[in-house]
Amino acid sequence: MRLDPVLLVVTPLISAFLLSLVKKLTPRLAPSLALGLSVFTLVLSTLLAKEVYINGPVASYLGGWNPRIGISLLADQASVLLVLLVSWGQTLGLVFIASYRGFTHWPGKYLVFSSIFTCSLIGMALTADLFNLFVFIELSTVATIGIMAKPDRPLGSVAGFVYLIVASVSGSLLLIGVVLVYSATGSLSMAVIAQEIHALPPGLYWGILLCFTLSLGMKFGLVPMHFWQPWAYHAAGCTGAALLTAFGMKAYLFAFFRVLWVPLQLPSMAPVFFPVLTLWGLANIILGHTMGLIQKDYKKLLALSSTAHGGYILVAAGLAGSMGTTTAGLFALAAGFFHMLNHSLVKASLLWVGRSFLKQASSSTIDVLKASPLGTGIFVLAALGIVGIPPTGGFASKLFIASSAGTPAPVIIIGLGTLISLAYYLRIYLILRDQTSTPSIVKSNGTSVRELNSLFVPGILAMGVLFIGFSSSIIMPVLLNGAGAMMDSGTYILHVLGDLP
Amino acid sequence: MNQSYDTSKKIRHLLAGIFTLSLGASLIWLILEATGMPLTPDLGYVMNSVGDTGSINVVTAILMDYRGFDTLGEASVIFTSVAVTAAILAEPVFTLERPILSIITRRAIAYLVPVFFMFPLYVITHGHLSPGGGFQGGVSLAVLVILTHVVFGHNLAMKKIPFSLLTMGEYWAALSFGILGLLGIFTGVGFLANLATGVPRGIPGQLLSGGLIPVLNLIVGIKVAAGLSSLYITLEGNPRRKK
Amino acid sequence: MNSLGEYIALIIILACLVLSALSAVLIRGQITTIIVLSVFSVLCAVLFAMLQAVDVAMAEAVIGAGFLTALFVTAADKTRGQGS
Question: What is the ipTM of this complex?
Answer without folding.
Answer: 0.92
